[in-house]
Amino acid sequence: MSAQAYLQEWKQEVETATRRLIDASSMPDRLFQSMTYSLEAGGKRIRPALLYAVLDTYGRPRALGHEAAVALEMVHTYSLIHDDLPAMDDDDVRRGRPTNHRQFDEATAILAGDALLTDAFRILAHAELEPVKSVALIARFSEAAGSAGMVGGQLDDMLAEKRAGVSLSTLQSIHERKTGALLVYALEAGAILADTPLADRQALVRFGKHLGVAFQIQDDILDVEGDEALIGKRVGSDEGNDKATYPKLLGLDGAKQALEREVTESEAALAELSVEAPRLRELLDFVVQRNH
Amino acid sequence: MSAQAYLQEWKQEVETATRRLIDASSMPDRLFQSMTYSLEAGGKRIRPALLYAVLDTYGRPRALGHEAAVALEMVHTYSLIHDDLPAMDDDDVRRGRPTNHRQFDEATAILAGDALLTDAFRILAHAELEPVKSVALIARFSEAAGSAGMVGGQLDDMLAEKRAGVSLSTLQSIHERKTGALLVYALEAGAILADTPLADRQALVRFGKHLGVAFQIQDDILDVEGDEALIGKRVGSDEGNDKATYPKLLGLDGAKQALEREVTESEAALAELSVEAPRLRELLDFVVQRNH
């Protein structure tokens, strides 16, 4: 099977689990509609894929990871809903459909985001796991998503957009938190659930960090040279504003070299695992070769 | 000591714990400023007070409850920040100071709320407790705060404001979730931490439900006849709009009788505890006798 085929499988796993774990009967219908509108908007489900790929790699059942995978997708989705708000990026369209606040209204979008975030912890806390594992999953998840992780990265990104001359290290620190933290968490959650040796868990975290940077550089490169129809936003849309990107700071060739280095580091981390990890390697290839 | 004196003690406990548990060094300074601006805005800290009062009642150290108390206040604070946003209640002033989005900006206020909510789970997950207790605290907390609790109640409240003829049962269902759920959680968290017998935990939950309704009816009565300088908002401000309140649905006398019934039920719940609970009784008196 190819990475594409596995991605399709993992995507179905998390989408089926999401429908099972979100309880429509316990909440106002409008809230349910708004939450599921964005949850079901599709996307590659990269975070759940990374988590399931770790479980596959260690021969553990995917069912172990459903709650953590759904929680990851819920938190990723809430962050997109809030980022799209008029006070933030003010986006009208995401994945070819009206953004949540355009489809519903701003207040509903704010609350749908709040509910997705809170309910993600509810779902994770109700997973049938040894309590010590649940606590570890929740502790690391909240670190990755909170002020020291995703939210902090988002705030710094917003501040950086307002000023010129953002350095490479600032750009990296923003991406590490804004998008990298949840990618790393997906791998670490897989390691916790699969009971990997500690050295493997550390190597998976390192793999996640380099994969996250590679993912971002590839995003920036696609924005310069990608096919507009495939990536769903105007190509070059980062260029018109002052937003710092890898190609702007390093030149297009420099960005491609940086991408190559991150791929090499990612592969080195995988080589340290106590097991073969072909699915993680294929996911890496997919991330850096994707054209959208 | 009087309820007032205990409230002062509990307030200091949670405020000291908050300063200790929020780590300024791990987040952008602007995010820290915005989060602490609203966290330190004061208030009666009723939720932490209820939790500490349960620990006091069962002779358990307050230090057991610091993380849960701080998490409660963080989630309450995030809900106020998001409720005040232009797309929601559009309030410029809270507790005599500019609301968070007026003091900072809307994007920062949204992110400060998101971070307070996420970090509340981080702090709770890092409490040094038996893992099974941590999981129970987190599971119940996320239920109380999420789509089935506070966020769902807030969305229904918003929808109810737009239409006339809200029934008493709808009004109660909204308050039970919007404000009641976190009050009940404060008591239940105290019971979990104090290892009370199950019957005591159930009685504390029942106490919390009636206390929550009493709290809300008293709020509505104060809005009709309170002293403007004390409550800090225009007296009668609920009257000008179509907002459903207990006095509007039951008349002022009817509301006062309903309040009396809730107090009686609250006292009955306390009488069922396996221990004497003078501090919880005083907190109840404080809630229904307060003039602001």
Automatic annotation (TrEMBL), chains A, B:
Keywords from the UniProt entry: Isoprene biosynthesis, Magnesium, Metal-binding, Transferase
Gene3D superfamilies associated with the record: Farnesyl Diphosphate Synthase
Metal-binding as UniProt keyword: yes
EC number per UniProt: 2.5.1.10
Domain of life: Bacteria
Pfam families reported for this sequence: polyprenyl_synt
Record-level Gene Ontology MF annotations: (2E,6E)-farnesyl diphosphate synthase activity; metal ion binding
GO CC terms, sorted: cytoplasm
This protein's record includes keyword Magnesium: yes
Family note: Belongs to the FPP/GGPP synthase family.
Protein name as catalogued: Farnesyl diphosphate synthase
